[in-house]
Amino acid sequence: MLHLNDVLTDVYGKNGRMILSGICDGQDIDHIVSKLTHNVRKKADQIRAIFKKEVPQYVLIRLKSCLEIIESVDKQITILENEIFRYANKYHKREMDILLSCPGIGELSAATLIAEICDFHDFSSGDKLASWLGIVPNVYQSADKYYNGRITKRGSRVARWILTQVAQAAARTKKSRLKMFFNSKVKTIGFQRAIIALARKIVTI
């Protein structure tokens, strides 16, 4: 059995499929390696070692079948995504334009957030939307003092997950106000809490 997962983080990613398709088509391993991205070519010796022995015919047949199924599913996903984008841009164009103007948000993230939140007009402010999404801290009282705890995690888990992914992308965006905001927070409250703070900032823009 093949053990590409020992070399690649995603066996069915671009490089993985290139290797597997090449093996199924009977291509020379050196020719296959030459087409891979630079980072993966660094592992050429490991890849060659995996395919040092001839791959059994029954494995190649099963592998080719699996690759064809994955390709077919990918095509269906693309069709569905394009239909979702068409619908979102037709009926929620303003919301899409606003979301897409934010660093780190792509069409799929924007359309998913719209689907999860539904009507943005239900929230009178960004703070109320952030509260509904569960990316605000719990507040505890002890005597006359108030303490902030972990985030409430109310609302949509999907929307919350997307926002944290968007925040991580925004934190890597060079020369942006969001990155500056993240940098101002991360030194004092740590990476994870700074990402949540940035996600909340994005919601309240």
UniProtKB/TrEMBL annotation:
Domain Transposase IS116/IS110/IS902 C-terminal residue range list: 97-180
Annotated GO biological process: DNA transposition
Signal peptide: none
Pfam name, any one: Transposase_20
Any GO MF annotation of the entry: DNA binding
Protein known as: IS110 family transposase
Organism: Methanosalsum natronophilum
